[in-house]
Design brief:
The termini are far apart. Helix content is 29%, strand content 22%. The strands form 9 sheets. A 7-stranded mixed sheet has the order 6-5-18-17-19-20-21, with helices on both faces. Helix 7 links the parallel strand 7 and strand 8. It has a domain of 127 residues: ANL, C-terminal domain (GMP Synthetase, Chain A, domain 3, 2-Layer Sandwich). Helix 6 crosses helix 7 and helix 8 packs parallel to helix 9. It is α/β, with parallel strands linked by helices and 683 residues long.
């Protein structure tokens, strides 16, 4: 991999009067005047060694002016995006023909990055072919495997030949209903090597959920597992595989991958199916062929959660995904060749796609499939210690659950190799920031990150050369023109508003599938502020230049006309040890909106007057009187999507008596019934 430039740049900046990111007040940011000390600071050596430091030195040459800190580098990356993304291509050593033009038709939507380029995604991920670890895999405590770079290339080669023989070529779709295992990554790489398009979901999706997704994109080949393990339980999926395959008439082949070692039996009962072993048996390892395609060629089709209607099919490009992920791995996360990168994810969440791109940085991928609490709450830290993990990625909910379990990994595990801990999926509470530094690893950079399936990447994320402040995401990503706007479309600082992106970025979708005139695409992001990407997050830029996300805008509460992010309430409720998790909604009431809080309590805990008073007091003192719910009710379960996000809109609709569409998108749709026709919500 090409790494250009050496020289210390990008200094730590805490406050700089006049900075475009520097304004005043700490309202809602999770910090107060007494908190004016960061939780973590990079050392001078860490700053000097960081890839973003060397990148900044090269950027100064291109810009023709000093870029003395991250904010200056970020400002340049927005001002001259053509030069910035060109430098990302060179610095990260993209394999391919860049072509002459960098950015044309610079509008949203419609901007075209590198319109003359030709490249192949898989070629950029399979840079190495040695005997070092490419992928390590743990399937709970049942499976422990590893593939070298050489073995991965061999598997991809055989899959490539088999897919080609099945008629897969440029533009065809290949889908996977698969666990997070090595064969899934190999199938994606083989698909991409041919210029075809990959789409995936996890095997815990119901039949309708799978068909709502793959039925829209009409795949030519479907990869499925013969089953999976979860919380120590063996879960077979043969009947679901058969039902799905029978309703996808475009399939030329169904490939059953062994996990429970019953692939042959499953394949025998499914039309057009064969086991993975039989699929690739005729083919021996040979040099991989890479079909180079245009920058904007479809690479991934990803899906919205689908909890409010049919899932949107979001199409992401080869070049946009590659460039953005290289930037986020190498520059924002400081991933280096030989690092060992982990993210707890399923194949139905965009973090799987993000994780797999770590191969392009020549990192070893540490894959895990199953429950993160089986057989013990610290099983992921067992993995981290055993495999010398350098990047540990997980969800905010996992960190909170770990906190409530009483675990203290710093006392039980050697995590000395860990440099970065990343969290996403929902806002990370300030108390969870403190828990990480107090109980997990005081020496790590903690990067709360936020973006989404919509851009298969992040708008705001970590910076290895800057401090970590309690409750704050460190910065907007390079090249991402992020601002917070009020309802009048004015840019605001230290004031809550809509997170917007004012200029095009290469990882924005190239289209929605089957949206021929682009109407659905425009409606999804550009209706509120024409020509401006409105992401749907309720956010604030803090005095440190960091970002706080308060939840989704469409789930924002509005009692008395005051906008309140649900994350502000959860931040306070999660402090109370008896409360395992909570979900807040707005209920139309007496011509206004009132806040209703549902809490899932620990074993044996009862929501009595004392506990309810503690919850109200904590919310009142920790947030404000306006945040205090009108009603607090205990529930046995909280509905969530397959990627673990709680579904406020679905609960709101059930409480209002409205139909919830696409319950198949939920991991536990039965939980919705707990919220229907509640007598306590009629008064």
């Amino acid at each position: 991999m090409k790494r250009l430039g050496r020289g210390p740049r990008v200094q730590i900046i805490e406050e700089r009067p006049g900075s475009t990111m520097n304004h005043h007040s700490t309202a809602g940011s999770g910090t107060t005047a007494s908190d004016e000390k960061p939780l973590w600071m990079p050392t001078a050596k860490q700053i000097a060694d960081a890839a973003v430091t060397h990148f900044a030195a090269e950027a100064e040459k291109v810009a023709g002016r000093p870029l003395p800190d991250y904010d200056a580098l970020h400002a340049w990356s927005i001002e001259d995006r053509a030069a910035f993304w060109d430098l990302v291509w060179e610095f990260c050593g993209v394999v391919g023909d860049k072509g002459e033009r960098r950015l044309v038709d610079d509008a949203m939507p419609g901007a075209k990055f590198f319109p003359d380029a030709r490249l192949n995604f898989a070629e950029n991920l399979l840079r190495r072919s040695d005997d070092g670890d490419a992928i390590v895999f743990r399937g709970e405590d049942k499976v422990n495997r590893r593939l070298s770079w050489r073995q991965l290339a061999e598997l991809v080669s055989r899959l490539q030949q088999a897919l080609k023989a099945a008629g897969v070529g440029i533009g065809d779709r290949v889908a996977g209903m698969m666990p997070n295992m090595p064969e899934t990554a190999a199938a994606m790489l083989a698909t991409a090597s041919l210029g075809a398009t990959w789409s995936s979901c996890s095997p815990d999706f119901g039949e309708r959920g799978v068909l709502d997704r793959f039925g829209q994109i009409e795949p030519k080949v479907l990869f499925v597992c013969d089953g999976y393990w979860y919380a120590g339980k063996r879960i077979e999926v043969a009947s679901k595989v058969k039902a799905v395959a029978e309703q996808l008439p475009t399939l030329a082949a169904v490939v059953v991958v062994p996990y429970l070692e019953i692939a042959e039996a499953v394949a025998a009962d499914v039309p057009r199916a064969t086991s993975l072993d039989h699929f690739i048996k005729p083919y021996q390892h040979r040099e991989l062929e890479y079909v180079r395609v245009p920058f904007a060629q479809p690479l991934y089709i990803m899906f919205s959660s689908g909890t409010t209607g049919m899932p949107k099919c979001i199409v992401h490009s080869v070049g946009g995904t590659l460039l953005q992920h290289l930037k986020e791995h190498i520059l924002q996360s400081d991933v280096r060749s030989g690092d060992r990168v982990f993210y707890f994810t399923t194949c139905g969440w965009m973090m799987w796609n993000w994780l797999i791109s770590g191969l392009a940085a020549e990192a070893t991928l540490l894959l895990f499939d199953g429950s993160p609490f089986h057989p013990t709450p610290t099983v992921l830290f067992d993995y981290a210690e055993a495999e010398r993990m350098t990047l540990f990625g997980t969800s905010a909910k996992y960190i909170d659950a770990l906190h409530k379990s009483g675990a203290r990994p710093r006392e039980t595990h050697n995590l000395s190799t860990l440099r970065l801990m990343a969290s996403t999926g929902s806002p990370l509470a300030p108390e969870s920031f403190e828990f990480v530094y107090e109980a997990i690893a005081p020496h790590v950079q903690l990067a709360s990150i936020s973006g989404g399936t919509d851009i298969v990447s992040c708008f705001v994320l970590g910076v290895p050369t800057l401090p970590v402040w309690r409750g704050e995401i460190q910065r907007p990503g390079l090249g991402m023109a992020i601002e917070v706007w009020n309802d009048q479309g004015q840019r605001v600082f230290e004031e809550k508003g809509e997170l917007v992106c004012t200029r095009a970025a290469p990882s924005m979708p190239i289209a929605f599938w089957n949206d021929k005139d682009g109407a659905r695409y425009r409606a999804a992001y550009f209706e509120r502020f024409p020509g401006i990407w409105c992401h749907g997050d309720f956010a604030e830029i803090t005095r440190h230049g960091g970002v706080v996300i308060y939840g989704r805008s469409d789930a924002t509460l509005n009692p008395g006309g005051v906008r309140i992010g649900t994350a502000e309430i959860y931040e306070q409720v999660e402090i109370i040890p008896e409360v395992l998790e909570a979900i807040a909604i707005g209920q139309d009431w007496d011509g206004d909106t009132r806040i209703v809080l549902f809490v899932r309590l620990g074993p044996g805990v009862v929501l009595d007057e004392t506990l309810e008073k503690r919850i109200r007091t904590q919310i009142r003192t920790g947030a404000s009187p306006r945040h205090v719910p009108a009603k607090i009710l205990a529930v046995a379960d909280i509905p969530r999507t397959k990627s673990g996000k709680i579904t406020e809109l679905a609960v709101r609709d059930v409480v209002a008596g409205r139909e919830v569409k696409n319950k198949e998108a939920l991991a536990n749709p039965e939980a919705l019934e707990l919220y229907r026709d509640l007598e306590a919500l009629r008064s």
